[in-house]
Design brief:
Layout lengths: L1 E7 L13 H4 L3 H7 L3 E5 L10 H8 L4 H4 L4 H8 L8 E10 L10 E3 L7 H15 L4 E7 L2 E6 L6 E2 L17 E2 L2 H15 L3 H8 L7 E8 L7 H5 L3 E4 L3 H9 L3 E3 L12 H11 L5 E6 L1 H7 L3 H24 L5 E6 L16 E7 L12 H6 L3 E2 L5 H6 L1
Parallel strand pairs: 1-12, 1-13, 2-15, 10-11, 10-12
Antiparallel strand pairs: 2-14, 3-4, 3-6, 3-9, 5-6, 7-8, 13-14
């Protein structure tokens, strides 16, 4: 028996004035054909009282109860980057962002939480520069992918109150600057980084090309070293994960799963979808379970790009679901495919929300009464509800 989860990050959304969502508007023939003969319903991937982040939601979908194992977002990303984590260390996610030009730092606006999806090569140069200029006193910067990086405090405590930058797009940062533990230090670090970055040659060249400069950092997602149960011990399955995102790779590493890198995988609309599909098909030859994570719908949601989000869903259906399904149908094993988002990222809000999300579970051994298509509305109409996301892994493997 083989098992695949195809995770459309942030795919769920709110209906527009015509009652339509990107899921209902997208042409996704493979997913919708499977929905007719699959179990379809709603799943609560974000426990009550927890923030609807991709960290919490993806842990849930992978079979982990975040109420018991979650220690913060940044340490999961740190595992992927290769940051050495001690038991007393604290990590922070460090975005490269674009802020507006007001002279008073606190009056600036968060123009772009990803600095125009800056390239990894450019970002690495900037983070290395900041590490040279600002590291010390137990603090050190580590470069990740594109705008996603890490700051580590060698020995410290939790308690900073920090806001994800994608939650404050187009807002003044005044009310969202660091508060709580180490707030003065973290704010000073952010302001000093801005002074260093705004005239860096990388940013001057980006501005000349009409691109958003990475003229500041933004710190958030503090956490401590995670302690995840081994995935094989949890499920009895040998698992692999395919993602362009350090967070998801870090969960895989922490859970003892195989993290598979795909050349050209970017986490946005222009990722190497074909390469991810072929990597999944190959991984199924040596693994029982493969988790394919696609970030593009979420990125488009954060950018308020409805057309892009629809296109991302269509591309995943065409270039991931269809070839993976075909390969499994041509194989010798029975199989199950789970399709769902981790959370909603409504284009009108440009941030995550925590309501239950639609899921579809296909079993090659039987035909089930499903739904005409997979959308937020059709999933709700089935009456099927999985209250806790981590219970899906049991439905998948039973």
């Amino acid at each position: 028996m083989k098992y695949v989860t195809i995770l459309f990050d942030g795919m769920a959304d709110y209906p527009d004035e015509n009652g339509e969502t990107p899921m209902s508007l997208a042409h996704k023939p493979t997913v919708d054909a499977l929905a007719k003969v699959s179990e379809v319903g709603l799943c609560g991937t974000v426990p009550d009282g927890m923030k609807p982040g991709s960290d919490v939601a993806n842990l849930s979908v992978m079979g982990y109860d975040p109420r018991k194992c979650y220690t913060g977002r940044s340490p999961l990303e740190a595992l992927s980057i290769g940051v050495p984590l001690g038991k007393n260390g604290v990590t922070y996610r460090c975005n490269l962002v674009t802020l507006s030009g007001e002279s008073d730092f606190s009056e600036k606006t968060m123009l772009d939480y990803s600095a125009g999806e800056i390239t990894t090569n450019e970002a690495t140069e900037l983070i290395s520069f900041l590490d040279e200029k600002l590291s010390g006193d137990g603090l050190k910067f580590y470069a990740g992918v594109s705008y996603r990086h890490c700051l580590k405090r060698e020995c410290g405590t939790l308690g900073a109150i920090l806001t994800p930058p994608h939650d404050i797009s187009d807002r003044k940062i005044t009310d969202y600057l660091p508060r709580g533990m180490y707030s003065a230090e973290l704010r000073s670090l952010t302001e000093r980084a801005h002074e260093l970055l705004k005239t860096h040659p990388v940013n001057l060249k980006r501005t000349e090309r009409g691109l958003n400069p990475a003229n500041s950092i933004w710190l958030w997602g503090e956490g401590t070293k995670p302690d995840l149960e081994n995935f094989t011990a949890l499920t009895g399955l040998k698992g692999a994960v395919i993602s362009a995102v350090d967070l998801i790779k870090g969960i895989a590493i922490g859970a003892g799963m195989t993290s598979i890198d795909v050349e050209g995988a970017t986490g946005n609309l222009h990722t190497n979808f074909d390469g991810k599909a072929q990597a999944a098909i190959k991984a199924l030859k040596t693994h029982d379970y493969v988790y394919v994570h696609l970030e593009a719908p979420d990125e488009c949601g954060h950018q308020g790009d409805k057309a892009g989000k629809i296109r991302a869903i269509e591309l995943i259906d065409e270039k991931i679901v269809a070839p993976v399904l075909a390969a499994m149908q041509n194989g010798n094993d029975d199989f199950k495919i789970l399709v769902l988002p981790d959370h909603a990222t409504p284009v009108t809000l440009k941030t995550h929300t925590g309501e239950p999300v639609p899921y579809m579970l296909f079993d090659s051994r039987k035909t089930q009464k499903g739904a005409a298509s997979l959308t937020e509305k059709t999933a709700a109409q089935t009456g099927n509800v999985v209250n806790f996301g981590f219970e899906l892994i049991h439905k998948l493997t039973e």
